[in-house]
Design goal:
This protein is α+β, with helices and mostly antiparallel strands and 212 residues long. It is 42% helix and 11% strand. Bound molecules: fe (ii) ion.
């Protein structure tokens, strides 16, 4: 008889971000609530999937199994991406300067400013989703990507370095839809570059453009 483990229960994280530049406390409160919904739904889906496995009905005999597994991709990523997003913001943002991170971000684009311009272009795209600068563990470079919803477009095996929520709920209380660029500007003003750098795997990405 197969033994299935009890599903892990995720607990919502908390952040002390009140007072951010250009992102209101009201937006944050609403956004934390949405995030907690993803945590709740991830736990619920894991519970229901465990019940189906327990009954031995996972392999095609329970028609809801596939839908629940697909739904988990949305809820789980919704939970995790929001954690990465809130984790990479701070009330006390410091300039990225000439850090290991700024060099790594510029590697594939010819420079930090070029990387940032491209990230802004990705984040400014129409639709709801996420802009993510991913460290590709195969190329050892960071490249910018658009994620549709929460689950479509991730780069397999890669590490998210800079994570920006560009769903409308992230800024609609503070800016008009046409002013999304102002929200993105505010995000950069609050960006915790140190938290992003801590995500960068060691050893450092290749530095073919570096003078050292
Ligand atoms: Fe969000």
């Amino acid at each position: 008889m197969k033994v299935y483990s009890i599903p892990r229960v995720f607990v919502p994280k908390k952040w002390d971000l009140a007072g951010l530049h250009g992102i209101s406390d009201a937006t944050l409160e609403m956004h934390f609530g949405l995030y907690e919904g993803y945590v709740k739904n991830t736990n619920l889906l894991n519970e229901r999937l465990a019940e189906i496995r327990e009954r031995g009905n996972a392999a095609g005999t329970d028609p809801t199994y596939a839908d629940l597994v697909r739904g988990l991709g949305f809820e789980y990523n919704g939970m995790r991406l929001h954690e990465l997003y809130f984790d990479n913001m701070t009330k006390r943002s410091e300039p990225v300067g000439s850090s290991r991170l700024s060099k790594a971000l510029g590697e594939a684009y010819g420079g930090f400013d070029e990387w940032k311009n491209d990230f802004l272009a990705v984040a400014g795209m129409r639709g709801v989703g996420w802009a993510i600068a991913y460290y590709d563990t195969t190329t050892l470079e960071i490249t910018n990507h658009w994620i549709n919803d929460h689950e479509n477009g991730h780069i397999a095996g890669s590490v998210p370095i800079v994570v920006l929520d560009v769903w409308e709920h992230a800024f609609i209380k503070d800016y008009k839809p046409a002013d999304k660029d102002k929200y993105i500007e505010a995000f950069f003003a609050n960006l915790d570059w140190k938290a992003c750098e801590a995500r960068l795997p060691l050893p450092s990405v290749k530095m073919s453009h570096s003078s050292t």
